[in-house]
């Protein structure tokens, strides 16, 4: 009898802790997407947020090497040029287009599906994809 009550209390405590953890995660997710207390979407910039991602995931080809005739991982101005690969888009818009299609980073096995891509280290994970989307929608601030 006593033992059963004790087990019940332990279980309840555990589920309260789990619930608190989930609420915490939800709060962080909301902050990232809606500009809650954590992140102001207007504050997502090339210099602070995207360049580190570009250097990491795209830099091998788009820094010194200049594949596709663009050095956008080190030259912000290149992002504002007309894209050759995506007619009618600027390069920063084309960057999102190609990532969403799984075509960049090139030959890395990316699919464009976030759930799959975040399991492949060469591809953009969920956080990086969110930042890229917000940044492009904000007009790619420097
Ligand atoms: C392994 C080398 C490689 C990597 C890594 C790579 N790219 Fe590329 N990228 C290329 C090549 C080659 C081209 C030109 C041929 C083509 O368009 O496929 C290109 C073209 C592009 C273009 C078109 C430029 C234009 O003027 O239209 C964009 C945008 C681009 N890449 C974005 C990215 C982004 C964003 C990443 C990282 C998330 C990335 N690339 C990673 C090789 C790479």
In short:
The protein has 142 residues and is an all-alpha fold.
Radius of gyration: 21 Å
Number of domains: 2
How is the main sheet built? Answer: none
- Overall, the morphology is globular
Average residue-wise pLDDT:
83
**What helical percentage do the residues reach?**
40-55%
Q: Count of helical segments?
A: 6
**How much of the residues is beta strand, in percent?**
under 5%
Low-confidence parts, pLDDT < 50 over ≥5 residues? 6-32
Sequence of secondary-structure elements:
HHHHHH
**Total beta-strand segments:** 0
**What bound compounds does this protein have?**
heme C
Cα(first) to Cα(last) distance is 66 Å
Backbone structural class: mainly alpha
Describe the structure.
The protein is 53% helix and 0% strand. With 142 residues, the protein is mainly α. It folds into two domains: 1-39, no CATH class; 40-137, no CATH class. It is globular and about 30 Å long. The chain starts with a helix and ends in a 5-residue tail after the last helix. The protein binds heme C (HEC).
Provide the descriptors you would attach to this structure in a database record.
binds heme C; mainly alpha; 0% strand; 142 residues
Topology:
Layout: H1 2-34, H2 46-57, H3 59-62, H4 91-100, H5 114-117, H6 126-137
Helix pairs in contact: 2-6, 4-6
Residues 57-58, 60-62, 67-68, 70, 83-86, 91, 94-95, 98-99, 104-107, 124 line the site of heme C.
